[in-house]
């Protein structure tokens, strides 16, 4: 019995030495933020839970695939988008999901590989323009009325000029009022996210009143993970995430994963 006890002790000591010899990030936990107003099908709250809702969606699945079997554990938190970006920049949070790029973000963050693409579009009430509104470039919309967008969202990839005046609303919940009361005639959104976002906010009937047009000459807009340059784990995060995105893309699994969540949203809301 004594020899068995000494063997167990030696094994435990050996395991402790092995663990202490691993790289610093091997036992680290990183924090990744998503927007708390939700961005379906990429991140949204699981409403089937009776306790505090957890984030689910395409983003969450990819994070689980990237880090679930790795030496780097992770947790996801939902924050107001501006705060999410600020804390990632400061290093309080390690990374943010579902971000488009502009000059400031290219400068302030370490950028992952793109892991999905969206279509910049503009929307209006069908009753306001029964014959439709087609423009050669987005700036021409001001000839027909005011254009709205969500405050702190990035619309650089929509092709707007720096002097373009965009009426900013705090959240999508204000959109019906802005359009029906004619404070705005147009709203900028990504085609693949608007219907799901309206649905989870119980505004899906409003979507049927809208006409949507792809922004002229707009290319599919890539979205990224933004990684804090101040995170001690930044290189490990980027390496693990990019490698998984690359392998999923080569295996043809990214699009089916996205379609899975689009289907879930259409069934649930």
Automatic annotation (TrEMBL):
Keywords: Signal. The keyword Signal applies. It comes from the Bacteria. SMART domains: PBPb. InterPro entries: Solute-binding_3/MltF_N (IPR001638). Residues 29-265 form the Solute-binding protein family 3/N-terminal domain. Residues 1-26 form the signal peptide. Coiled coil: none annotated. SUPFAM superfamilies: Periplasmic binding protein-like II. It holds the Pfam family SBP_bac_3. Belongs to the bacterial solute-binding protein 3 family. This is Transporter substrate-binding domain-containing protein. It comes from Shewanella insulae.
């Amino acid at each position: 019995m004594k020899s068995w006890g000494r063997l167990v002790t030696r094994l435990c000591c050996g395991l402790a030495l092995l663990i202490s010899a691993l790289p610093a990030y091997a036992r680290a936990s990183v924090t990744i933020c998503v927007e708390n107003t939700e961005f379906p099908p990429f991140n949204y709250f699981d409403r089937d839970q009776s306790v505090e809702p957890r984030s689910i969606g395409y983003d969450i699945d990819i994070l689980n695939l990237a880090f679930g079997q790795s030496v780097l554990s992770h947790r996801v938190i939902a924050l107001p988008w501006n705060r999410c970006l600020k804390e990632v920049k400061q290093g309080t949070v390690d990374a943010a999901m579902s971000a488009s790029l502009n000059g400031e973000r290219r400068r302030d963050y370490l950028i992952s590989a793109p892991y999905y693409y969206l279509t910049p579009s503009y929307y209006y009430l069908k009753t306001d323009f029964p014959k439709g509104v087609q423009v050669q470039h987005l700036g021409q919309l001001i000839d027909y009325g005011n254009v709205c967008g969500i405050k702190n969202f990035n619309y650089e990839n929509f092709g707007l000029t720096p002097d373009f005046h965009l009426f900013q609303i705090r959240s999508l919940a204000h959109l019906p009022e802005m359009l029906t009361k004619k404070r705005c005639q147009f709203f900028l959104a990504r085609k693949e996210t608007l219907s799901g976002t309206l649905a989870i906010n119980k505004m899906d009937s409003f979507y049927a009143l809208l006409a949507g047009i792809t922004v002229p000459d707009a290319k599919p807009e890539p979205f990224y993970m933004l990684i804090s340059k101040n995170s001690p784990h930044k290189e490990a995060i980027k390496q693990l995430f990019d490698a998984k995105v690359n392998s999923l893309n080569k295996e043809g699994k990214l699009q089916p994963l996205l379609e899975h969540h689009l289907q879930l949203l259409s069934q649930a809301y």
